[in-house]
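Lab notebook, design round three. We kept the backbone fixed and only want residue identities now. Task for the bench partner: fill in a sequence for the structure below.
Input structure tokens:
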């Protein structure tokens, strides 16, 4: 699929008023993955409410940058970056009761605990004590995938990492992995989650990846 001409898209800061659209796009883009179907429940009002609250809080966090891509007035993609310039970032975090509430309202709390236990654990083990830029999420509407929008969002974010001369970190799904390799991310840790334990049919692979800084930008 051809890339979009630059005149057709806009990269803009997302606002708190975009929280519902961000949540909808997250659900749409990941909803086809068996991991998401098992871990999350897009029809659970309590779970959706907690996720919306989390997104709104992120949009008001000065360390977080949410960028949205607009095409002909339509919100078609987004990226969430977290700039951790405090090496002790891993010693902080949201209250445990909020984490517990999200897990209890997950479609499968045990699967939720296994997946996010690995995800948050590997971040702390590998990047704890280091300044870095975290790509927490990058999502493109299925109808607009393969048009270069993900690359556009990556370039913008990685320029920030290079400006600060710090590594960039992410956890990739199988779908996003090739794009991240293209942009210089290297494998750090592989996590294969056996979904058959939870009634699924596949093994979902996630890969923790890091990209070293590539020079300061002006």
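Proposed sequence:
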């Amino acid at each position: 699929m051809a890339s979009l001409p630059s005149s057709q898209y806009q990269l803009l800061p997302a606002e708190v008023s975009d929280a519902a659209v961000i949540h909808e796009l997250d659900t749409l883009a990941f909803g086809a993955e068996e991991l998401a179907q098992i871990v999350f429940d897009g029809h659970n009002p309590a779970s959706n409410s907690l996720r919306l609250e989390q997104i709104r809080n992120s949009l008001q966090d000065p360390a977080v940058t949410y960028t949205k891509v607009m095409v002909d007035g339509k919100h078609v993609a987004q990226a969430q970056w977290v700039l951790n310039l405090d090496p002790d970032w891993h010693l902080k975090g949201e209250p445990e009761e909020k984490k517990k509430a999200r897990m209890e309202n997950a479609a499968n709390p045990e699967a939720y605990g296994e997946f996010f236990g690995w995800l948050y654990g590997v971040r702390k083990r590998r990047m704890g004590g280091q300044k870095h830029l975290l790509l927490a999420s990058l999502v493109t509407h299925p109808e607009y995938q393969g048009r270069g929008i993900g690359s556009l969002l990556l370039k913008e974010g990685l320029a920030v990492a290079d400006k600060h001369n710090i590594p960039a970190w992410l956890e990739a799904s199988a779908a996003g992995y090739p794009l991240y390799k293209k942009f210089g991310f290297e494998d750090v840790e592989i996590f294969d989650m056996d979904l058959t334990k939870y009634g699924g049919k596949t093994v979902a692979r996630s890969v923790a990846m890091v990209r070293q800084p590539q020079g300061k930008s002006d």
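Keep this in mind before ordering anything: Helices lie at 19-30, 34-39, 45-59, 96-104, 109-127, 149-164, 177-182.
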